[in-house]
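User: What would this chain look like folded?
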Amino acid sequence: MLDPITMKLNIDPLILQALKEDIPEEDVSTNAVMPNSVAGHVDLIAKAPGIICGLQVFERVFTLLDPKTAVDFKVQDGDPVEAGTLLGIVHGDIRVLLSGERVALNYLQRMSGIATSAHRMSALLKGTGITLLDTRKTTPNNRIFEKYAVRTGGGRNHRTNLSDCVMLKDNHIDAAGSVKKAVAMAREYASFVRKIEVEVENLDMVKAAVDAGADIIMLDNMDHDTMAKAVALIDHRAKIEISGNVTADKIDGIKDLDVDYISSGALTHSAPILDISLKHLTPDEKGDAYEG
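Assistant: Here's the prediction, encoded as structure tokens.
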């Protein structure tokens, strides 16, 4: 669950930005057919099986438009659902229900799709002791939503931003001149509380990273035989992460390796949405004016 402080400081401004994008002046369609405030309700229905995520964000879209809007949820984040499941009922001013519909569903569908993909992939690693991680390959301005969705689906977050930890990739190493120099410079510059991770592409770089004292070594785009040799070379002197085009269909071919983490950009950049709809919009009895 997202805490209230995170919602207020970090998520509300993003939702408002999305709403302003969708309603730059007015919702001309809604204003045409609903000129006055009328109380009503609408059903939130899953149209495909998956893992639900983003209910707080979904609700927040409507309450930012009108604090009196209320959602009666029948499920909670992390729940598996089947096609046809009633997820909740949204009550409020019909104008608000219509104007907030697309933004609210965009968040819920996207987050539920990522949670569903993370759930499927993490299940493939069950019993291995390997932790599934995401990456920073997220949609701009949506990282906080997408990384929460990964956690909801059973994965874990790699660094959230560039301030989290030191991660020395190929271009950082090229800039420094060598793995040894890059790690030494990072040790001197960064706070002692920050881990240093080094991305390596061959066994020479693996040895250099171990000798330099890297905390985490990422085996990037290596074949299985090379990764096995790298694991033996590291010999538990650093945490080991496998990365590089990791998808669900490749998990079986690498989960036998004695590593700590597998990271996958596909969790966020390639997850399909979970199909969810708002249906059966109905004015409340007699179509009374909305009072909240």
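The chain has a mean pLDDT of 96. If you want, I can go into more detail on any region.
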